[in-house]
Specification:
heterodimer; A: about 425 residues; TIM Barrel; 2 domains; globular; B: about 425 residues; alpha/beta; 9-stranded mixed β-sheet; 12 helices; 16 strands
Chain lengths: ~425, ~425
């Protein structure tokens, strides 16, 4: 295999006059490597070939292939590309105001891949994202999992399953954001009732399809929304559920149990009050930490210890940017705040990477530096949890997608004239003036 | 009665009841602070330094080898000690944690120009957000009506302690807050200001009215003097250069318009926000206008789309006076944390001490309260913050806060 590659490489080199073999074959040498799975390696080697991780280990313990371009990254740190389980970049628009539950809507159909948010995300070391519609609905649509590869269309960025279809989850919410004037619910009880009603419909729809036994005469008419919910019922589509208050969290656990869907709890401001219940249910939490509590009633008890309390209860924890709520360029900072409030260093690093990958069902492909996984990684100037550390480079599938030394990339990393654009965030509650 | 006087009175009463008491007991209830590194912001950092606080003021500061701690004093120790932090601009206290109409007094939408609104009449000294920012070292805040209306009201300077606004207040009216930016422009048709041109016409008209009012009020014949007008009274204080106009402006053209306004009326201006100020550094320096730079973790959209983490460093190098701020937040989080914002500046070109200066000494100097706060010097207020490591590191904690000699926070945050 190796020889074959070298031969091909030589052939290309001879015909093109350039050493093309090196474009997809690298050995990063000398960095402290944080593989997430396994101990940190003081002076390590990471070998990347054809977009995959070919080897990772101690310097001297891993042979550097002859065809690989050797890159000295001494004094730097390499860790897996960050996985963001919850982002709103791309100037997106999901469900509209016509109904509180709209599973037919795909965020896939609304993303501007050239939006500056994508440049800020790679500048922050993010490589895998779950891009979601907002939380102003009980169910605001289908989410999409993307890799921050270069590209200008969502087709190029989306992560695909074995059938070639784009992968994604479904976005749901409870609590205050989705309680609004008609046709939206006005109370928590009504919110849950509407959700149950819809999932019962999906169960019945699935039964009708089963009873039809592929007979076109007996098949019920197609329903895009119910088709998506069947994927949820069958565990093919993970529910990403906005929920803050402790009682709202318990409501999500109750509904998940009733309908058997796979759920990830998002935000979970008050998870620290029901951490044991979350752990007992075996449900994962994606946490957001912001600089102060409040801003809305369900976030008044948000505090920085949520990650630590969940970790100690034995529950799975990831972090997310919720970009625009927090800036993707500062994603490492959120885990550092978790450590500040007592979370373990290893737990916080996992929460930025592998735990998020698991919450998207992508843990076989991303989230750690292991042989055979996608070569998604970041090169940092220092410790991931120091404010003074910079993301120097971001790599996705063996390609460098961010280089802080590049003037245009630097502009997006630090900001400045021309770094932004005029697209307003698609979120419910901002007003850059006074009262919301 | 200020927070400090109330504390001192309590101590005096204690002495009166006990009669003559030994020095050790005199010191009881008083506090000294010891730090492996003490940043006084009035000279080089002191290794193994001591700050002795007596009767709410700083009685001594220096190396532990030179300054002894009176017996019986409570001693707080930490890795790093700094002056209590000074937030150059926030709305905390007018803005509440819940973000519901009952706790949002930072903006009044009934008219675009209302300089008569006083922050002192809108401040909730018991607001939870005050305790939150205080637990991250903030002891003094310039808090105000929010940006969002052309002239939204008066600002004030408070300590982050006190049972009532009367105890908290340091300066009752520090400035008049104005907004020369799209934030103050009405979207509804028929409402003014609807454009930038109209916005400037409106504020210029009002300042001219105030000039005329000032002249008439000064007339010799008392029966010819106009009736008092709270709104124009407030503007006269600006025209008299007694207080500045704090102008929120971000885009280049809005900063330029602000400079024009300052020249035309010869008024003092504090520039707030200033996301594109890196394009106007020479002009700002020439005009002598200090800048309260927007929170660096502000969301990069709208008029902040071209914000830069490096703005503080650029302005500093250009010789523009600057301070950092927590600003105004309309959603989640409901306030930013000053310490965290300065950390981003320190990580993007400002030196450690320059970043610390922007949230202590320099902020106090621009606000005109450097005789009281912003540095650890004998005679200044006993406002101190303590940390278990580099204050700007994400994983360090603020472990103590003292205001006018009283410990108001002593748990790691």
């Amino acid at each position: 295999m190796g020889i074959q590659r070298i031969v091909i490489g030589l052939a290309i080199a001879l015909t093109s006059g350039a050493c093309r073999a090196q474009d997809n074959h690298f050995a990063f040498v000398g960095a402290r490597i944080i593989p997430i799975v396994g101990d940190e390696i003081e002076r390590g080697v990471l070998v990347v070939e054809d977009g995959k991780i070919a080897a990772v280990g101690r310097e001297g313990g891993v042979s550097i292939p002859a065809g690989a371009k050797r890159v000295d990254v001494s004094d730097h740190v390499i860790m897996p590309g960050l996985v963001d389980t919850h982002s709103h970049i791309g100037g997106i628009g999901g469900a509209d105001g016509s109904a509180p539950i709209q599973p037919d809507v795909r965020i896939y159909d609304s993303i501007n891949v050239l939006h500056s948010g994508f440049r800020r995300a790679v500048a922050g070391g993010l490589t895998t994202l779950n891009i979601m519609p907002g939380s102003g609905h009980l169910l605001s649509g289908q989410t999409v999992y993307v890799k921050l590869r270069g590209g200008k269309t969502i087709e190029e960025l989306s992560i695909r399953g074995e059938d070639g279809e784009p992968l994604g989850g479904i976005k749901m919410a409870n609590g205050t954001n989705s309680q609004r004037a008609k046709p939206f619910p006005g109370t928590r009880g009504k919110s849950a009732a509407l959700v149950r009603e819809k999932y019962v419909k999906a169960q019945e729809y699935r039964e009708k399809i089963a009873r039809a036994e592929d007979d076109p005469e007996k098949m019920p008419p197609r329903d895009l929304g119910l088709e998506a919910l069947i994927e949820v019922l069958e565990g093919k589509r993970i529910v990403h559920h906005h929920t803050h208050r402790h009682d709202d969290i318990m409501t999500v656990l109750r509904l998940a149990k009733e309908f058997g869907f796979r759920v990830v709890l998002h935000h979970v401001s008050e998870a620290w009050k029901v951490a044991d219940e979350i752990a007992a249910a075996g449900v994962a939490s994606s946490v957001i930490l912001v600089d102060s509590p409040g801003g809305k009633l369900e976030a008044v008890n948000l505090i920085h210890k949520t990650g630590r309390v969940l970790e100690q209860a034995g529950a799975k924890v990831a972090f997310h940017t919720d970009d625009w709520i927090t800036d993707s360029r500062l994603f490492l900072r959120m885990a550092a705040l978790g450590v500040r409030a007592g979370m373990s260093r290893a737990g916080a690093l996992t929460a930025l990477t592998l735990a998020g990958a698991e919450m998207l069902g992508l843990e076989e492909r991303v989230g750690s530096l292991e042989v055979g996984k996608d070569a998604d990684f970041v090169i940092l100037s220092g410790d991931p949890f120091s404010v003074y550390t910079k993301v120097l480079e971001t790599w996705v599938e063996g390609q460098r997608v961010f280089d802080r030394d590049d003037p245009q990339d630097h502009l997006h990393a630090v900001g400045g004239y021309g770094a932004g654009d005029d697209l307003a965030p698609y979120l419910c509650c901002f007003d850059d003036g006074g009262n919301q | 009665m200020t927070f400090g006087t109330r504390l001192r009175l309590r101590l005096v009463l204690g002495v009166a009841v006990l009669g003559s008491i030994p020095a050790a007991e005199m010191a009881a209830g008083q506090v000294a602070v010891r730090g492996k590194t003490v940043y006084t912001m009035a000279g080089p950092a002191i290794r193994d330094g001591v700050v002795v606080l007596q009767d709410g003021k700083i009685a001594a500061v220096g190396p532990a080898t030179d300054v002894s701690i009176p017996e019986g004093m409570r001693v707080l120790s930490a890795e790093v000690v700094t002056p209590g932090l000074v937030d150059a601009h926030t709305t905390v206290g007018l803005t509440g944690i819940f973000n519901q109409p009952h706790d949002q007094d930072q903006i009044e939408r009934s008219a675009p120009i209302q300089p008569e609104l006083r922050a002192i009449d809108a401040y909730n000294a018991h607001e939870e957000l005050i305790r939150w920012v205080r637990s991250f070292g903030v002891t003094t805040m310039h808090t105000a009506h929010a940006p969002g209306e052309l002239v939204s009201g008066q600002t004030m300077i408070v300590k982050t302690a006190g049972n009532t606004v009367g105890e908290a207040v340091l300066v009752e009216t520090a400035a008049i807050a104005a907004t020369v930016s799209p934030r103050a422009i009405k979207r509804e048709r028929g409402k003014s200001p609807g454009t930038r041109g109209k916005l400037m016409a409106m504020i210029r008209s009002d300042l001219i009215k105030a000039q005329e009012y000032r002249q008439k009020r000064g007339a010799v014949k008392e029966d010819k003097t106009p009736d008092r007008n709270l709104r124009l009274d407030a503007f006269v204080r600006v025209l008299d250069r007694e207080i500045p106009l704090m102008v929120t402006a971000n885009h280049v053209q809005d900063i330029d318009a602000t400079l024009r306004l300052a020249r035309e009326f010869n008024i003092r201006v504090w520039l707030d926000g200033a996301s594109e100020s890196y394009l106007m550094m020479d002009e700002l320096k020439a005009a002598g206008i200090p800048v309260f730079i927007h929170p660096l973790m502000v969301r990069a959209f709208g008029e902040m789309k071209n914000m830069s983490f490096e703005t503080p460093a650029k302005l500093k190098r250009a010789g523009v006076a600057l301070a950092l701020q927590s600003g105004y937040e309309s959603y989640v989080p409901k306030t930013r944390v000053l310490l965290f914002e300065a950390a981003i500046a320190a990580a993007n070109g400002l030196s450690f001490e320059e970043a610390l200066g922007a949230i202590t000494r320099d902020a106090a100097r621009i606000l005109g309260v450097d005789d009281r706060v912003g540095s650890l010097e004998v005679g200044k207020d006993g406002d101190v913050a303590l940390y278990d490591g580099d204050p700007f590191e994400y994983t360090s904690h603020c472990v103590g806060v003292v205001i006018e000699g009283q410990v108001v926070h002593d748990k790691p945050r």
